[in-house]
């Protein structure tokens, strides 16, 4: 795992996406007669509350007043946790065309769902300023607000990300004694971002032909299929294990369950067949790792229907139009 270097920048995109929601809030101050007195675009930065308060209050000459620098906003990411309620089937993959090789495609497993905890801090001089900014935000969260992010551009993966508002807290902080006219009102808004974390991408081939066999269910679990195996190979197939043909068990073109195996007669007896076993092709044991070439069928499988789906034209790739030719043959 450590040697497989990749970085999708998902957490950074979630941070930027969250902050962009609040980067265009304008505060309007009015006179006693209701006319506009001042219009302020409220700035926002990525910073924790304690550090940002220290920055606002800090002054080596001890003559800066907080009201000069307010209003301000900051936000911070506090943590993340796995969300099992949004888990998808882990064997599902997303696919996208490769830029340089039209005969292959890029593949990436579905993401892992994580909840990201954010807090937004609003620093104002007066309660009225804070109430106005908070009322700019609350109507959009009912309790969720959804943004759309291009999370993995190379895979063309764009997701809608719900952001849930959990709570709003209020506090007063004074610079000096309680009678001082200088104070800072702080609102803290707690959010949960329903995000995802994506793994690495890999290059995979394009399937140009698919063969599906429909077997006789009445005979499917009977030990009626016998393979005549070559006498050259290694290992011993285990009773009850699965055997397969293909690059791996996950990418197998055919599978079956071992009923019995004789290393003296080289006969492999199986049932629960899936896919299309081919002669002159290696049959591999999933548990035993035994490997022998299938010479022929001593007892053929109880095949009822064979469905052969082929891409047309056979030179088609993921970027070109194509059709699928299907041949159905009843036995």
In CATH, the topology of the largest domain is named STM4215-like
CATH homologous superfamily classification of the largest domain: Myoviridae tail sheath stabiliser
Q: Going across the major beta sheet, what is the strand order?
A: 3-4-7-10-9-8
Number of domains: 2
What is the 3D shape? elongated
Sketch the topology as an H/E string, one letter per element. HEEEHHEEEEHEEEEEHEEEEEEEE
Strand content: over 45%
Radius of gyration: 32 Å
User: Helical percent range?
Assistant: 10-25%
- Low-pLDDT runs of 5+ residues are none
Report the span from N to C terminus: 47 Å
The CATH architecture of the largest domain would be: 2-Layer Sandwich
Q: Oligomer, anyone?
A: single chain
Structural class, by secondary structure, is mainly beta
How many H/I helical runs? Answer: 5
Q: In total, how many beta strands?
A: 20
**Overall average pLDDT:** 84
């Amino acid at each position: 795992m450590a040697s497989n270097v990749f970085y999708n920048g998902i957490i950074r995109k979630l941070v930027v996406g969250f902050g962009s929601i609040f980067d265009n809030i304008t505060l309007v101050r009015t006179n006693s007669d209701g006319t506009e007195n001042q219009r302020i675009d409220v700035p926002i930065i990525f910073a924790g509350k304690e550090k940002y308060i220290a920055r606002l209050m800090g002054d080596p000459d001890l003559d800066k007043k907080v009201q000069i620098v307010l209003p301000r906003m900051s936000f911070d990411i506090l943590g993340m946790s796995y969300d099992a309620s949004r888990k998808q089937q882990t064997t599902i993959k997303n696919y996208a065309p490769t830029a340089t090789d039209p005969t292959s495609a890029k593949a990436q497993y579905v993401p892992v769902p994580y909840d990201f905890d954010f807090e937004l801090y609003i620093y104002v001089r007066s309660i009225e300023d804070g109430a106005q900014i908070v009322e700019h935000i609350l109507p959009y969260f009912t309790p969720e607000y959804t943004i759309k992010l291009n999370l993995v551009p190379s895979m063309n993966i764009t997701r809608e990300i719900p952001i849930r508002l959990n709570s709003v807290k209020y506090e007063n902080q004074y610079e000096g004694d309680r009678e001082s006219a200088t104070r800072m009102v702080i609102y803290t808004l707690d959010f949960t971002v329903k995000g995802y974390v994506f793994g690495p991408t890999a290059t995979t081939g394009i399937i140009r032909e698919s063969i599906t066999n429909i077997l006789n269910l009445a005979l499917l679990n009977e030990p009626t299929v016998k393979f005549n195996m070559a006498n050259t190979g290694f290992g011993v197939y285990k009773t009850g294990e699965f055997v397969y043909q293909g690059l791996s068990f996950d990418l197998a073109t055919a599978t079956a369950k071992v009923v019995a195996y004789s290393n003296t007669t080289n006969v492999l007896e199986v049932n629960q067949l899936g896919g299309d076993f081919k002669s002159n092709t290696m049959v591999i044991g999933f548990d035993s790792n035994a490997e022998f070439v299938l010479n022929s069928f001593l007892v053929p499988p109880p095949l009822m229907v064979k469905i052969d789906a082929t891409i047309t034209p056979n030179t088609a790739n993921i970027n070109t139009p194509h059709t699928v030719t299907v041949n159905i043959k009843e036995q």
